[in-house]
Each structure stands twice: as structure tokens, then as C-alpha cells.
Design goal:
Blueprint: H1 2-15, H2 21-32, H3 44-58, H4 63-67, E1 69-72, E2 75-78, H5 91-100, E3 108-112, H6 118-126, E4 131-136, H7 139-151, E5 158-162, E6 173-178, H8 185-188, H9 193-196, H10 212-224, E7 225-234, H11 240-249, E8 253-259, E9 265-271
Parallel strand pairs: 3-4, 3-6, 4-5, 6-7
Antiparallel strand pairs: 1-2, 7-9, 8-9
Helix pairs in contact: 1-2, 1-3, 2-3, 5-6
Length: 278
């Protein structure tokens, strides 16, 4: 019975333009049955739950939102349409941060536009003595980030606050990290329905060239970075050169580009110039 159920569901997903309909049908059926893998026939209630999941996915709603969770850095995060879905590409920022602090972990981390909290929580899971602050303009996102921190055991070292990038912050940090919106106005016209139709536009759209949020962040970096601090930002396709200019104009130096697993320039790392006596 489950074989025919999966076949029919996969056909429904394929008709909606889903790239891997059979794989996604199996994922959703296992979730409906609360199993790691399908090893028995579903009950009537499980079949009904599965049908609802397939109907939602057929509208192109992302699987992560249907399940309410997404893995990032081998950690399980709660997600909803209030936050951007964590992606493997963003793990490049975590890797870049770990590579930058090989001689000693930072004591304090600032995560701008924290969303689900995935970047800050991933780093706190690696650096057990560090503390961090996550900033977001969305109260719903902040609530999700707080729940993720509590469930993943870092709540005592993480604080989540409502804010507009660096505005109003009155302390300095050893590491500033962010995955700001970077989709340009033109790119937004061609986004997949899964993204444009369901993920929060506030976390995607970065203005005409996609770099307006980075410009705003850059203008405030000197006020929130310790003299020895580093800043790491996620980039969109072909944004590295422009991002470099923005950060240099803001007074940062020693810029380095980190590539993701696909070889794309995914993150930019920078620091403040050395200050005598600092």
C-alpha cells in the first residue's frame, strides 16, 4: 500500500515541478509516520497527515516549513515562514569563523539579522566559552531563535534582541557575523517559487543591487567591533568585488573571500586596521 501511496504522491509532486519528487515523498511520509525511515504501513491518520503534507508541497511550500525544522551544522533548527531556511552554503560562514580564530576562540559574537539563530548557535556550539547576541527586526524570528538556543543547550550564553542592524548597540564584539539580505531587485524576479512565494522578503531583498543591507551594516561596524575583531558576511553571486569596496570604504582591511562547496565566492572576511596600543 505504501508503495502505491508514494507513487501517487510523487506523481503529484512531479506535476507541480518538484525536482526530486520520489525522494521528497519518502521524506514527507516518514515525517507523517514520525519515523526515521518507512518500515511499516501507515495508519489512516498517518495517511491523512501525509496527504496534507503533499498538498502543501504541491503548492511549492518548502519541505522545511512543512516539517517545521531544518538541519544546519549537524544541529536541528526550528523554522517557520518568519525566518529564512538555513542552507548548507551558509555553513561557509561558520567554517570561515572557525578558520579565523585558530589561536583562540572569540569571547563575544554579534549575529546581525539572526533569523533562526543558526549562525550564532552553531558557533556557540563550537566555542563553549563564548557568548553572543543575535539581532533581528522580527519579534517572531527572535522567539524562534530563543527556542532554538534553549533546545540546543546554549540559551545561557545567547541573548536575542530586537534591533535594526548595528543601531543602538552600546558594546563591542570580537566577531561580527551576518547573512544579510542580498538578492537584487532583478534577481528577485527570477527566484524559484519555493523561495519567493514562502520565505520572508525582508530576509531576501537587498535593494537594487542587493547590497544595501551590507552598506548599512558597514557604516556601523567601527562602533561594534573590538580593535582585534573580525567581521564575516555572506555574499550573493558576483558580489565579492562590490562588497570588498564597501568594506574598504568603511575602513576595514585584510579582506579575504571564502568559497562554498560549489566553488562560489560565498563569504567575505575583514577586520579593522591595527590601532597602536590596542
Amino acid at each position: 500500500m505504501s508503495a502505491s501511496l508514494l507513487k501517487d504522491a510523487a506523481a503529484q509532486l512531479a506535476a507541480s515541478g518538484i525536482d526530486e519528487p520520489q525522494r521528497e515523498a519518502r521524506i514527507l511520509l516518514a515525517a507523517a509516520m514520525n519515523l526515521a525511515r518507512i518500515d511499516r504501513e501507515p495508519t489512516a491518520s498517518e495517511r491523512a497527515a501525509f496527504a496534507q503534507m503533499i498538498a502543501r508541497r504541491a503548492t511549492r511550500e518548502p519541505v522545511a516549513y512543512i516539517l517545521g525544522r531544518k538541519e544546519f551544522w549537524s544541529l536541528d533548527f526550528e523554522v517557520s515562514p518568519a525566518v529564512l531556511i538555513p542552507r548548507p552554503d551558509s555553513e561557509t560562514l561558520v567554517e570561515a569563523a572557525l578558520a579565523q580564530f585558530t589561536d583562540g576562540a572569540p569571547k563575544t559574537i554579534l549575529d546581525l539579522g539572526t533569523g533562526s539563530g543558526c549562525l550564532l548557535i552553531a558557533l556557540l556550539s563550537e566555542w563553549r566559552d563564548a557568548t553572543g547576541v543575535g539581532i533581528d527586526v522580527s519579534d517572531t524570528a527572535l522567539a524562534i531563535a530563543q527556542r532554538n538556543a534553549e533546545r540546543l543547550g546554549v540559551a545561557s550564553r545567547a541573548q536575542f534582541r530586537r534591533g535594526d542592524w548595528t543601531e543602538g548597540l552600546d558594546r563591542r564584539f570580537d566577531l561580527v557575523i551576518a547573512n544579510p539580505p542580498y538578492i537584487s531587485a532583478r534577481e528577485h524576479l527570477y527566484l524559484d517559487r519555493d523561495v519567493a512565494g514562502f520565505e520572508p522578503a525582508l530576509a531576501l531583498r537587498g535593494g537594487e543591487d542587493g547590497l544595501d543591507p551590507l552598506r548599512r551594516i558597514a557604516n556601523g561596524l567601527k562602533l561594534v567591533m573590538q580593535p582585534h575583531a573580525f567581521a564575516i558576511f555572506e555574499l550573493g553571486i558576483d558580489q565579492a568585488a562590490a562588497a570588498r569596496r564597501i568594506l574598504i570604504n568603511a575602513g576595514l582591511k585584510d579582506l579575504r573571500i571564502a568559497k562554498d562547496l560549489g566553488g562560489r565566492e560565498r563569504a567575505i572576511v575583514a577586520r579593522l586596521p591595527h590601532q597602536p596600543g590596542a
